[in-house]
Every structure is written in structure tokens, then in C-alpha cells.
Amino acid sequence: MAGRPTMVYAVEWAEAGPPVAYRVQELVPGSHGSLGPLLPRPVGGRELAFATECLPYVPDPADLSE
């Protein structure tokens, strides 16, 4: 999805090993513009993202401290 924020709603697995693809829903700003949370696009915005094309998630250390 070319760097746009998405939410995974389904995962496709091979016979063995890690996931091979993810079904994703594009996220868009809510009714409060950029101040509110991102919400799933109400119409469209769904596609298949192959795992080989996805960037790994690296959490921000600030998000891990509580």
C-alpha cells in the first residue's frame, strides 16, 4: 500500500512457515481530521499485500515503556 497506514484483517499462510500474504484495509483520518484516530476506509481500500513486499514492524521504544 505504498507506505499508507493499513490494518490487517486476514492472514494467508503457506503449508508451513510464516504468513505469505496479508489482507489489509486502508486506514483514513476519522471525523476529527488528523486529530482523531485512523479508521478503516468505509468503501474500498482493501487489497492483498504479499509478505515479501511488507516492511517489518519495529515498535517505537517510547511505545514500549509504561
Secondary-structure-based class equals mainly beta
Helix content: under 10%
- Uncertain residue segments: none
Q: Total helix count? A: 1
- Please report which band the strand proportion falls in: under 5%, 5-15%, 15-25%, 25-35%, 35-45% or over 45%: 35-45%
Helix and strand sequence: EEEEH
Q: What sort of overall outline do the alpha carbons produce when their principal axes are compared?
A: flat
Alpha carbon gyration radius: 14 Å
Task: Report how far apart the termini are.
Answer: 31 Å
Mean pLDDT: 81
Tell me the total number of β-strands: 4
Characterize the biggest β-sheet. Answer: 4 strands, antiparallel
Structural description of this entry:
The chain has 66 residues and is mostly beta strands. It has one helix and four strands; from the N terminus they run ββββα. A hairpin with a 5-residue loop joins strand 1 and strand 2. The longest helix is centred in the last third of the chain and has 4 residues. The model has no long low-confidence stretch (mean pLDDT 81).
Summarize the structure.
The chain is mainly β and 66 residues long. Helix content is 6%, strand content 41%.
Keywords:
66 residues; mainly beta; four-stranded antiparallel beta sheet; 4 strands; 41% strand; flat
Task: Please write out the topology.
Elements: E1 6-13, E2 19-29, E3 38-40, E4 46-50, H1 61-64
Antiparallel strand pairs: 1-2, 2-3, 2-4
